[in-house]
Amino acid sequence: MVSRLRASGLAALATILVLSAPARAAYHGPFEGKWVYIYYLYQIYGGDEDRIVAELKRADVAGVCIKAHNGAKDLDSPEFARFVRRCVAEGIRVAFYGYIYLEPAAGRTAQLEAEAAERMVKRYEQEVELYLIDAEGEAKDNPAEARVFAREIRQRIGGMVKIGLASYRFPSLHRELPWAELRAACDLDSPQVYYRNGDPVANLARSKREFQAMSPRLPYFPAGDMYYEHGLQPTPQAVTAYLQACKDDPDIQGTLMWAMWQLHKVPALWEAFARFPWPVRRPTAGPPAAPTGLSPDGGAVVGSATVALRWTPPAAADPQRLQLEVLRTGGWRACHGWTLRGDTASLHLAPPHRGASYRWRVQARSTAGWGPPSAWARFRWQPGARPAVPTPPPTPPVPPAPPPVLAVTGLAPAGDEVATPHVDLSWRAAAGALGYEADIAWWTGSEWRPYYTYATTAPAKRFWPQRRPTAYTFRVRARDATGWGPWSPASLFRVR
Fold it and tell me: Cα(118)–Cα(72) distance, rounded to whole angstroms?
């Protein structure tokens, strides 16, 4: 059942949309293709960085997920740093995972373990895109400590990376794990679907079914099995069957596999993985330029009740991040940070300290990595004061470019209210398009947050919104043989 929204309500929501409110970290595209876990670098070719990267490229690996901390101990090293940065330079995406214990009696508190994760993510915030919580036996039967960890990890790194839960394949067999508490911090599920000598396709189907029955329903980014342990290992045919099942599932964009170091022990399994064709997009240009036109700047006094930060983002940015610092005794101190959509050009906020001086800057990312940050812009917030320094004039408008060939139009629903459990998104097919991405956001009541980015070859996509009742927007872009076209304007609708 679909009915038109009241005009007044729709107008109000449209006004909210152009405010470009802050959002949780945006996907740097979906986690597509073949990814692989790396436990310790020295286990692979004796830590030879050149050989490891060459093998990852031969296998057409889209990304690596590296162990970054064990409990409260981070695993950083010069070799770790060189490898992470080399991967990004070679077009291989990077995720981290950390094993958590949640055992205060052993000194492994949720607070200390979250701090270890934060240290590693912050050190590599230019490179890492995803952090996975590896919670297994030690984390069972401890919901209180799990709640603390989830709250801490969301607050500490939720604005920098996506967060996922890497745990058992079947929640129904491990009810002692505090699933709800840990998933409260997460943007996706990444269960360990280790089928061993079982049926990989049946294991994947059951795991996906159990996770999609949980609330909220999160994107599903599973991990498969290509290792030997306790006399058990899958066959090369099972590895291929699992990868094919993932690739054929429209709800699965990619998969992790455990683990690269096993290529020395079971080379036939690694070879099955390496030869499986799952091409993904690779960076075709350098990182984006720094955002420009920041306002207010120059020490301007802002006398309004809120501050409107405005800037011009570079082309092909997705996402952006904004840093705000305040001048206190002893110098500049971090105040807050936001991760924003690539096309965001403004942010309205009420700083925490009246009468204080602030500085802020913006940085943009593309598939080639983070570009340079803008220069710091400075202002003083004094509500009720008359501006001592005029705000710089707005950046002159850029002349509109001719319509691209792959521009997507005709988005629906548009301004509708949807009462069914699912929403059917559709748009006009673009001539010559080989595929599409549909990027969805939802309204929290105070800000827009990314929901999910779906890939499809058809000019339509069905999804089941887990946040309701509220408003959603979606935008679409098309891909042809030369690359991606521009994002369409966002289409607004509401679900009951």
Answer: 11
